[in-house]
């Protein structure tokens, strides 16, 4: 088993166990792809019939709102970048996903995934848990935008990935938490001053 396949299997088995038969059933339907920095993995207006699993790299998800890119998520190693609505409904995506770093992925198609769900109870359980987790992430994000201050949203960023501050440019982080970059700079300055005043 290659390192990439091993990473995928470990990610799936963090949610549900797989037998060798389950894994052998899955492998023929997996496809490797590479997305260079600056290239799009998902483009609005197209229908997508696959989900990615990130082996290496970094991507950001965004919508175009009045000509402005508004970030709604980031994908790191071990994450599952996808246009989920397009994938499930077979309709055109309104989401964009672009690589911030050179990125390598394994892809699995809608048809192959449905076959796995149909023929394997373990894969079916994985699909259910993964869907539940995706719903939770979406609801937490929606609640944060409605109920949290931009400062609190900034402080929560490391929960997305420990290296997010080092790997994602500030203007992309600002867009994600719903402010302009000058406002984020003021938030960061205020937090630094506050920590110094507390002797931290």
Tally of extended strands? 7
Helicity range: 40-55%
Q: Which sequence of strands runs across the widest sheet?
A: 2-6-4-5
Strand content: 15-25%
* Termini Cα gap: 47 Å
How would a crystallographer describe the biggest sheet?
Answer: 4 strands, antiparallel
Please state the CA-atom Rg, rounded to the nearest Å.
Answer: 19 Å
H-E string: HHEEEEEHEEHHHHHH
Judged by helices, strands and strand pairing, the structural class is: alpha+beta
Helix count equals 9
Tertiary shape: globular
Mean pLDDT: 93
| pLDDT < 50 runs, ≥5 residues | none
Descriptive notes:
Strand 4 and strand 5 form a beta hairpin. The termini are far apart. Helices cover 48% and strands 21% of the residues. It is built from nine helices and seven strands. A four-stranded antiparallel sheet has the order 2-6-4-5.
Provide a compact summary of the structure.
With 200 residues, the chain is α+β, with helices and mostly antiparallel strands. The chain has nine helices and seven strands.
